[in-house]
């Protein structure tokens, strides 16, 4: 007999012996025998089918995606530059009286200089630029508040006219000094950015100081000087904005800003 025949015969003999024992045992004996044989270990017999274990496939890897945010800096700087440019030309008396109305800047201050800069500040928060977010959101709020002060329906000019018109100049002096202090803080915080940014915040600081002095002294000459500084500030802001637009991916040349980092 071959080894396979011997193994098959052995399995049949074992099964026949087990069946013969069960035939001559009472149900109580079978239960007692089962309890004494615990724990029962399963042994694979010759006729058992093969055991196939199918493991489920592993889950696909999770790929983290992030939203792409464009650089909001050039847009915010353009909003600051253009609004400051229009107001500064009025203060400098360029073709108009420096003491005349300048309410045409209210629309720019409300939308382009104000709302757009606040939005740029929120987008800078998204990119992780705390300095840019603070600067744009703050100066955007400045232009929004400046436009509200100039609007007759706000009741601010009327309140001063009804009480004491000279008090408006004193209040605007305090208003401009507060923004000069803030610009000084931003000037210090920009010392590791670039020469262009340091120059921009220095011009803003000087502009607010001159505007506060013009309001306090009711001086036309100082107001004209603040308008000239404002024009220079606008061109510095535009230069920084265009340096952010003219990148290696979008331009054949770049504008140097003198990185200090």
TrEMBL record:
This is Probable fun34-transmembrane protein involved inammonia production. It comes from Lichtheimia corymbifera JMRC:FSU:9682. It comes from the Eukaryota. It is a multi-pass membrane protein. The chain crosses the membrane at residues 75-92, 104-123, 130-149, 169-188, 195-214, 220-242. GO terms for cellular component: plasma membrane. Belongs to the acetate uptake transporter (AceTr) (TC 2.A.96) family. GO terms for molecular function: acetate transmembrane transporter activity. It is found in: Membrane.
């Amino acid at each position: 007999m071959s080894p396979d025949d011997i193994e098959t015969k052995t399995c049949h003999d074992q099964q026949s012996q087990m069946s013969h024992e069960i035939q001559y045992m009472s149900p109580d004996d079978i239960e007692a025998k089962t309890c004494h044989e615990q724990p029962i270990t399963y042994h694979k017999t010759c006729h058992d089918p093969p055991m196939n274990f199918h493991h489920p496939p592993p889950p696909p890897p999770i790929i983290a995606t992030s939203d792409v945010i464009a650089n909001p800096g050039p847009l915010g700087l353009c909003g600051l530059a253009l609004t400051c440019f229009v107001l500064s030309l009025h203060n400098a008396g360029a073709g108009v009286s420096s003491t005349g109305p300048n309410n045409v800047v209210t629309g720019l201050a409300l939308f382009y200089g104000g709302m757009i800069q606040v939005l740029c500040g929120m987008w800078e928060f998204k990119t992780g630029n705390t300095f840019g977010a603070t600067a744009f959101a703050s100066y955007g709020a400045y232009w929004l508040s400046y436009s509200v002060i100039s609007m007759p329906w706000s009741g601010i000019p009327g309140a001063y006219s009804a009480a004491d018109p000279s008090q408006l100049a004193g209040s605007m002096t305090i208003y401009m000094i507060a923004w000069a202090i803030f610009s000084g803080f931003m000037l210090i915080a920009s010392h590791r950015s670039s020469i262009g940014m340091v120059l921009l915040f220095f011009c803003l600081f000087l502009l607010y100081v001159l505007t506060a002095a013009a309001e306090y002294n009711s001086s036309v000459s100082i107001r004209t000087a603040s308008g000239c500084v404002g024009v220079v500030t606008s061109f510095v802001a535009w230069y920084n904005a265009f340096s952010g637009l003219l990148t290696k991916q979008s331009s054949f040349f770049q504008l140097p800003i003198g990185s200090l980092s």
